[in-house]
Amino acid sequence: MTEAQQTAAVPVPPPPSAGGPTGPAPIPLLSPREGVPPVIADLEALTERIEAFAGGAGPVAVDAERASGYRYGQRAYLVQLRREGAGTALIDPVACPDLSALGEALAPHEWVLHAAGQDLPCLREAGMVPGRLFDTELAGRLAGFARVGLGVMVETVLGYSLEKGHSAADWSTRPLPEPWLRYAALDVELLVELRDALEEELREQGKLEWAMEEFAAIATAPPAPPRQDPWRRTSGMHKVRRRRQLAAVRELWWARDGMARERDLSPGKVLSDAAIVAAAQAMPRDLRALAALPGFGPRMGRRRLQQWLAAVERAAELPESDLPQPGRQPSGPPPPRAWAEKDPAAAARLTAARTAVTARAEELNLPQENLLTPDTVRRLCWEPPTGGGEEEIRAALRGLGAREWQIEQTTDLLARALAAGD
Asked: How far apart, in whole angstroms, are the C-alpha atoms of residue 341 and residue 167?
């Protein structure tokens, strides 16, 4: 190990504030302090590492790598762990798909993740669910850091630069290249040290209890329900106006989804959104017309073209009663641009509330959306609670999912804002 690598294994104290780096150039973190561990790909090795991690000390750094853009779904293709007394582990969840025993062994301990919302779904799919967690990305936001990517945070707070370049790799590749494994191991190398520095920063700012409320909400949140009408998220949908064309988008989307699931490919690798929209707009009646459209070129086989044409034909044959409507009825208030015409008083409330929440967020040095989500503000202003007093507003905010610290920081200013429309 080089002198630089040995030095990089020793964390440095955090800067006195959440501003940008002002000291010397960051030290490159070139290799994990114990080297790159072998990938765990069998039950015997997994059992040994579970025992080692259960006997470790302190929080557990956790990360996962997916193959977004390459494979169907968002499953994990590598799970990385690090804990004092246990070192670093790299686990292949393809070879070891059931990690519930590992999850149970680690559940009593705090898990440290960066951008936990991205990794928790795929970890849960493998059987790993935290009891407690610390999200270093969210901690950075609450502490007022302008940039909260892992590399930037490690550099700003700890003074080290992480290797970049493999985050968008196809992690379903087997065997995984050694440089990728080194990159993955480094992602958890200093995660606990970053957590400790951010905890101290939040404590000094008087925000640690707020962060703990946020982390508890993430850890206890149920899995997100499936999206309704996911086909409506097709890029370029705004170009499709007629209901039968919308039906073609829907049929093509579901046909693509089935093929992608069967072949374990990202849907975009099976057929692009642009091709779906082009076919829906043209409504081709034969293979020749379909093949002439963008995205259905000569490299696409006849059998596949027939499958896409069959989807368009299904849409063409649907009775009018089965055609989708141009847009879904929104479950919440209308777009804010329409408020002035639909309800001028609500528009006045929204303007006052947005201004007040933004000002309070600036005072607290945190993003406005972390103080109170824009959707919460809109819903409260569109249908204010009966009475409009602070207790009614507190109850309404709780019903909309706001945390207690958010309620404490915003109830008074929202009460004044809601009165602006009376």
From this structure: 46
Assess whether 155 and 303 both reside in one domain.
no
Do 173 and 299 lie in one domain? The reply is no
d(Cα 229, Cα 332) in Å, to the nearest integer?
17
Q: Which residue range(s) make up the domain with 94?
A: 3-220
**H/E segment holding residue 6:** helix 3-8
* Pair 177, 274 in one domain: no
For residue 269, give the CATH number of its domain: 1.10.150.80
Nearest Cα to Cα of residue 275 among 230, 307, 319: 307
Secondary structure of 22-80 in HEC code, one letter for each residue: CCCCCEECCCCCCCCCCEECCHHHHHHHHHHHHCCEEEEEEEEEECCCCCCCCCEEEEE
Q: Is 88 helix (H, G, I), strand (E, B) or coil?
A: strand
What pLDDT is attached to residue 14?
A: 41
Edge-to-edge strand ranges of the sheet holding 132-135: 39-40, 87-91, 76-84, 57-66, 110-113, 132-135
Q: Whose CA is closest to 64, among 46, 49, 76, 74?
A: 76
User: How many Å apart are CA 234 and CA 252, to the nearest integer?
Assistant: 11
**Tell me: the pLDDT tens digits for 143-170?**
999 999 999 999 999 999 997 778 789 9
Residue 357 lies in a domain: yes
